[in-house]
Amino acid sequence: MTATTVLGDLLPAMEMHELVDQAVTRAGERAWSLGDLDWASLRPERLTEADRSAVRFITFVEDHIPGYLSHFLEAFPVADAEQELERFGFNREYFRFLVAWAGDEERHASALTRYQIETEMATREELLVGLAEEGRKKFTLPYEHPVQSFTYTLVQEKATQLFYRRFLDVVSEPFLKDLLGRLARDEARHFAFYSNLVGAYVARDGAAAIPGLKDVIATFRMPLADTMKGYWRWSLNVADSTSYDHTEAYDSVVRLVRGFVDTPGEPSVDDLGDFVQAIRRVR
Q: Which of 5, 17, 52, 257 could form a disulfide with 1 if both were Cys (CB 3.0 to 4.6 A apart)?
């Protein structure tokens, strides 16, 4: 089920407006373009095979933005004259963020695509055909409550930011280092928005929100994990080459909850921390 199946459980539109306004303002202030990148600084001879594999992998992930955006527009529609005004108001505000977010992600995909072409990892035709093969596959999230969809994206954005920082630490090609830094900063902004959004739900609902968050962590899969052939082997190889572990992002959910559910010794908060650590030990 999608978030649209749950009625009467959204933040007030004005509160959502304030959260989105802050996020889109930051996006405008910190925007960059492909023209800002120093393409003359490319040194493809400094790329290792592991670097090349990781670039190819993340290009698939970033290029799937049409699928991600389509899912959220279906889950939070803005073209439904029958929906309640409050729901439309919330969805309309979220749409403002989605437009800015999609612009960032499309820029990421474009930069990585051009990087592959410029460094001769693939021809333009080969790359576009390969991306289209994966890009046409449908992306969905199984969560019933809106805050679960937002928590999923919080974890995904944090995990992606962490990966870019890890990758930046091991790569020596100068252009790629600069690009990865830009990608990481954008993902940090996206994470900040979802952290504030989920935080607003937790501040309102308190410990009652925790079971839904636990469900997200228990079922979490990175994008494309269930649709891309050979995903798990490829992702593990990429993770090994960069000393990356996406489960580190789960800790951000625990820190967020502890920041908003401030009842001393709240059992469900401690249980969430123990649950996350148990999940991380078996993955």
A: 5
Per-residue pLDDT of the chain (283 residues), as tens digits, is 333 333 348 999 999 999 999 999 999 999 999 999 999 999 999 999 999 999 999 999 999 999 999 999 999 999 987 889 999 999 999 999 999 999 999 999 999 999 999 999 999 999 999 999 999 999 999 998 899 999 999 999 999 999 999 999 999 999 999 999 999 999 999 999 999 999 888 888 887 888 888 899 888 999 999 999 999 999 999 999 999 988 888 888 888 787 766 554 555 555 665 645 654 454 4
Where does residue 89 rank: exposed (0-12), middle (13-18), buried (19+ CB within 10 A)? middle
Q: How far is CA 254 from CA 86, 193, 207, 270, 277, in A?
A: 30, 17, 12, 9, 10
Q: Tokens 């572990």 identify what position?
A: 245
- Amino acid letter at 277? Q
Concatenating the DSSP letter of every residue in 96-109 gives HHHHHHHHHHHHHH
Q: Please report which residue ranges of the chain form alpha helices under DSSP H.
A: 13-29, 49-63, 65-75, 85-118, 124-135, 146-170, 174-205, 210-219, 231-242, 250-260, 267-282
The domain 3-282 having CATH identifier 1.10.600.10: the answer here is: no
What are the structure tokens assigned to 68, written together?
Answer: 């991600």
CA dihedral 282, 227, 182, 47 (to 10 degrees): 90
- CA R_g for the chain: 19
Rounded to whole angstroms, how far apart are CA atoms 34 and 62? 15
